[in-house]
Amino acid sequence: MIMQNQLNTRSPLLWVPTGYFTMALGFMMLTNVSAIMFKNLGMDNGSAAQYSSMFILAYTIKPLFAPFVEMYRTKKFFVLCAQVLIGLGFAGVALAMSLPNYMVILIPLFWILSFVGATQDIACDGVYVTSLDQRSQSLYCGVQSLSWNIGPIVAAGGLVYLSGHLHTGVFHHSSGSFGEEWMESWRVIFFLVAGLTLLMAVWHARVMPDGERASNTPTSVAATGRIIADSFVSFFEKRDVWRMIAFAFLFRLSIGFLEKIGPFFMVDPASKGGLGLSNELLGIIYGTYGLAAVLLGSLLGGWLVAKRGLKSTLFWLCCAVNIPNVTFLLMSIYLPENLYWIGAGVIVEKFFFGFGSVGFMIYLMQELAPGKYTTTHYAYGTGLMGLCGLVTGVVSGHLQQQLGYISYFVLVMVATIPSFLACWFAPFHVSDRVADQDEKARLEAEKNSDGKNLAVAHTN
Questions:
Q1: Which of 69, 191, 220, 400 lies in the 20 to 30 Å Cα band around 316?
Q2: How much is the pTM?
Q3: Are 173 and 145 part of one and the same domain?
Q4: What is the DSSP annotation of 293-306?
């Protein structure tokens, strides 16, 4: 057993790519693809956006129950249990869709699966952090990120495309229809995801290491409660914490309003102000071109921050995230039929979203997280981001139905204003302190150098 664990630890390529792909696949099916499915099945925009956004809650509050995962058994045990339950749960979703009043079963089942998925995330991250040393963590960070991003390609791209192909090419329904005739296609999709997730559980049972317990792991519920309470109190003791909270919550506000409604706008017919695309075209544009643009933008945004520093670039990164949202306003006004123009609009928005979002994550790492509970406070920051997505997603569909697409996309542009304000007033205490220390060290070095030069001159 020891030799096997050592082998697995030395070979993270056996389990890091598949582990993070499986995490992303479950998350995307629950919080993103489910919205498209609800829309296909005839649910109105308000309800489809609301229900799919509610499933983000578990991922938002996972820092509150993460310590309990540390207390019992191994991290691998929780990964395997979660993946088995997710696989069986998605199979249950497919079976439930053949029942009358299936939505009464689907919504609670998705809700339960979201908490199981959040537990999988906690445990898989724990295996990664505790099984690899710091050098290996850095070495495989790119593999980890790339593997996670393959999940959206498969889910929002490949599976959405496949649902449309099954609907029209296999079950011979009209691509522009919405209603229960979509159940056949989506049942196949969820059976496929269930089988793939269970296959990943079998694979990880063979190759994934157990993961070590951290030295400060609590041993009782009471101790866990004290740690959670202390991390919460210390978070609010940070200097200018409310300005940092405002930044974490508001930076992606306009994106939150756009995230669910953008795909709905793509598939709604022209009679409702949409572009009338099929699921196949939606999968290609969003899941392939759009995601490729996000990845490229993220790489270039990271390069810019590394070259110029976060403080000098953050406001421009905020501009990059928010201003290109105007592409959806323009498309809602002109309703282009040319797929090149539609694809270009999505690519522009997604590229600059990826470019600017780098600043958000780096700010959380460098300014919000540092302190006694760095990992937990970073999770609080990402939790605030998730809370923003939950709140905006729940109301976005209802607002769009009231306003129509053109007025709603105007609202999206207005929602960029709080993002700019939160970014402009975001504090930089840690960066300023580090800069002051670097400047002090530079002056001290110059002083020492001048003293040595003077001594040499005097000797001569």
A1: 400
A2: 0.83
A3: yes
A4: HHHHHHHHHHHHHH
- CATH number at 358 reads 1.20.1250.20
259 with 293, same domain: the answer is yes
Q: Assess whether 252 and 339 both reside in one domain.
A: yes
| Domain carrying residue 132 | 1-217
Q: Do 334 and 418 have their domain in common?
A: yes
Residue 119 lies in a domain: yes
Q: Please tell me the distance from the alpha carbon of residue 62 to that of residue 117, in angstroms, as a whole number.
A: 10
Number of folded domains that form the chain: 2
Domain boundary at 158, 183, 217, which? 217
Residues 193 and 241 in one domain: no
Are residues 195 and 296 part of one domain? no
Token representation of residue 405: 């697409």
- For 276, the 3-state DSSP assignment is coil
Of 288, 354, 33, 346, nearest to 150 by C-alpha is 288
pLDDT values of the chain reduced to their tens digit, one per residue, 460 residues: 443 444 444 588 899 899 999 999 999 999 999 999 999 999 999 999 999 999 999 989 887 877 777 667 788 999 999 999 999 999 999 999 989 889 999 999 999 999 999 999 888 888 887 787 767 776 676 677 778 878 888 998 899 999 999 999 999 998 778 899 999 999 999 999 999 999 999 999 999 998 766 555 666 777 778 888 888 899 899 999 999 999 999 999 999 999 999 999 999 999 999 999 999 999 999 888 888 888 888 888 888 888 888 899 999 999 999 999 999 999 999 999 999 999 999 999 989 988 988 888 888 888 888 887 776 788 888 889 889 999 999 999 999 999 999 999 999 999 999 999 999 999 998 766 655 555 465 556 556 665 555 554 555 5
Helix count (H) and strand count (E) of the chain?
25, 0
